[in-house]
Amino acid sequence: MSSLSTRSEQVENVSQFFQIHPENPQPRLIKQAVEIIRKGGVVIYPTDSAYAMGCQIGDKNAIERVRQLRKLDKSHNFTLLCCDMSQLGLYAKIDTGTFRLLKAHVPGPYTFILNATREVPRLLMHEKRRTIGLRVPDHPITLALLEELGEPLMSVSLILPGDDEPMTDPYEMRQRLEHHVDLIIDGGFGGLKASTVINLAEGEPEVVRVGCGDPAPFLVEA
Q1: Whole-number Å distance between alpha carbons of 76 and 64
Q2: pTM for this entry
Q3: Where are the chain's structural domains?
Q4: For the structural domain made of 12-213, what CATH number should be given?
Q5: Residue 77 backbone zone (phi > 0: left; psi -120 to 50: alpha; other: beta)
Q6: How far is CA 47 from CA 72, 109, 126, 205, in A?
Q7: pLDDT value, residue 4
Q8: Of 70-79, 91-100, 153-162, 171-180, where does mean pLDDT reach its minimum?
Q9: Nearest to 50 by CA among 182, 189, 172, 147
């Protein structure tokens, strides 16, 4: 039996499945997707790296569902997807040097771990370090969702327990997850690698995870 079937609050109905154009997202479907998010839905969507799973940033129940699906502990750094640098700056403490570094690589397939501001709900922050992952994706569907939502989207890579890589095929996602999430957005096949994760919370950049973003600009020479 799949470990997913043990979740206590399983979605009773089959999830919705939207086929959204990856370059010219249909506004009607974007609006419907955001309505699902605002009603507490857990959604799977494409990004400029791999597919991700997310929900509204202040929805405790939806966040807990994501945590259970991914089997994440309290030390996990959740990520907030932001529409631009201005929005990112509301949720992270950014000095001048960090701002320059971010601006050179945003938007793009990078997640930056930064010290969170009071705008970040406590249940999303690292339990001890009060940090949060932040990223500005470069994908038309994701950016359209963020623009319609008007706030960041809580996000984790779609790497299920027991898998080493993100899921790439929307139809496989539908087969495995249609009873566990509220919406799957089919924007075509996804990437094989998640975003590259860079920790900027403690001064010098630290490459935490190498993904599809080139880590070279953040490697500090000894």
Answers
A1: 13
A2: 0.89
A3: 12-213
A4: 3.90.870.10
A5: beta
A6: 21, 8, 23, 23
A7: 53
A8: 70-79
A9: 189
